[in-house]
Design brief:
It comes from Chryseomicrobium palamuruense. Residues 1-68 form the HRDC domain. Pfam families: HRDC (PF00570). It is built from 5 helices and no strands. It is mostly helical. The two termini are 21 Å apart. 74% of the residues lie in helices and 0% in strands. The relative contact order is 0.15. The chain has helices at 2-10, 14-17, 20-29, 34-37, 45-67. It has one domain (2-67): DNA polymerase, domain 1 (Orthogonal Bundle), CATH 1.10.150.80.
Length: 68
């Protein structure tokens, strides 16, 4: 869902946004800050600058919904 959203938003191929392994690690680690996001394999400064805030917001929102 995250990658599909970013793919439509940027008009890029899904595999150019995040690899499957990166998505799996995002689900497992659930980074809550941009610094934590940088610890995810496949995410560097450029991707954090481009997608970081949105990715963290989505993860935080998903985490809050699942806590209820």
């Amino acid at each position: 869902m995250l990658r599909l959203h970013l793919t439509k938003q940027t008009n890029r191929k899904a595999y150019h946004i995040f690899k499957n392994q990166t998505l799996e690690q995002l689900v497992k680690e659930k980074p809550q800050t941009l610094e934590e996001l940088l610890k995810i394999d496949g995410i560097g400064k450029q991707k954090v600058e481009e997608f970081g805030v949105e990715v963290v917001k989505i993860i935080q929102g998903h985490t809050l919904v699942n806590m209820k």
